[in-house]
Amino acid sequence: MEYANYIAHCLEIARRGEYYVAPNPMVGAVLVDAGGTILAEGWHEKYGEAHAEVNCFRHFEVSKSRDLDLATCTLFVSLEPCSHYGKTPPCAKLIIEKGVGRVVVGMLDPNPLVAGKGVQMLRDAGIEVIIGVLEEQCRELNKRFLCLHENHRPYVILKWAQTSDGFIDIKRTSGSPIKISTPKTKEIVHRMRAENMAIMVGTNTVLLDNPRLLNTHWEGRNPIRVTVDRYNRIPSNARILSDESKTIVYRNRTDWPYILTDLASRNIHSILVEGGTTLLNHILATRLWDEIHVEVAPELTIGDGVPAPAIDLPATYETVDGHLLFTKLNNFAKK
Ligand code: AOF
Ligand code: ZN
What we know:
The protein is α/β, with parallel strands linked by helices. The protein has helices at about 5-15, 50-60, 90-100, 115-125, 135-140, 145-150, 185-195, 205-210, 255-265, 275-285; strands at about 30, 40-45, 75-80, 100-105, 130, 155-165, 165-170, 200, 225-230, 245-250, 270-275, 290-295, 305, 320, 325-330. It has an eight-stranded mixed beta sheet with strand order 10-9-8-11-6-12-15-14.
């Protein structure tokens, strides 16, 4: 029985919960008989609802093989089964009750409510437990959830679009921003808004662009909007304050380490920062970020404007609609 193949399948089905489970992790589970046949599968579908293991057993109960002795079977799950009473009862307890013989776990759950206790419960009940299969892929899938529990701050993604001569906008005090993104790259931005729990822009962007910062071009929830307003300049009718989603405005303390700590205390596991340059440069100086995504429009030069943050772009990029999409990962963020 090739464990990695089944954990790979768990990861594939876990992703179906992508836009619906935050701040919980995406988790997939498959129940496999002694001959290696998958009897049932399940994944965490929605925040606050059943965990992957519960859904897997539910599907098993309605299957033809439900009378099988589960002592001969293996449950594969991409994350350690939980041991706590949260919004749902502990999955480890359910697995013990079902009498499963063996459990293969992709990676341990760093949530202090679980953190090894799920595996301990299973082992105490005499179940064979194997830990650490495709661990790197398991970590990548839930990098936001892991960042919150391991680093006690949200996963931070900085994102901007710039002209080929390095500007994010024309200099202006009114009027509309220059359009840099294409329809397809705009869709990618909305997907990023759906992937992250929060979205942030600085005061100037709120005042100049009056953005809604919603996810209107991709499935899933709208992100929680975050901004700073030290001098009470944001008017009460600003679109960022609309009731289409929640908004957090920092007024007294606006430094990035403080904001991250506060967001973590609200269980926000990820934030996408879309600008402007002042905010992005402040964040870059703290080194508290995880990814940077830069879109460059090669055909667009404006000679003068608001400069993009000065960073070294990586050598490789993706091309979408003729635009260059660079992704830079942080090497010095504490992992
Ligand atoms: C599992 N299987 O599919 C998931 C787990 O509030 P609750 O009850 O939904 O618990 C959320 C926590 O449970 C979450 O922070 C993480 O530690 C774990 N997620 N565990 O056994 C699952 N999604
Ligand atoms: Zn659980």
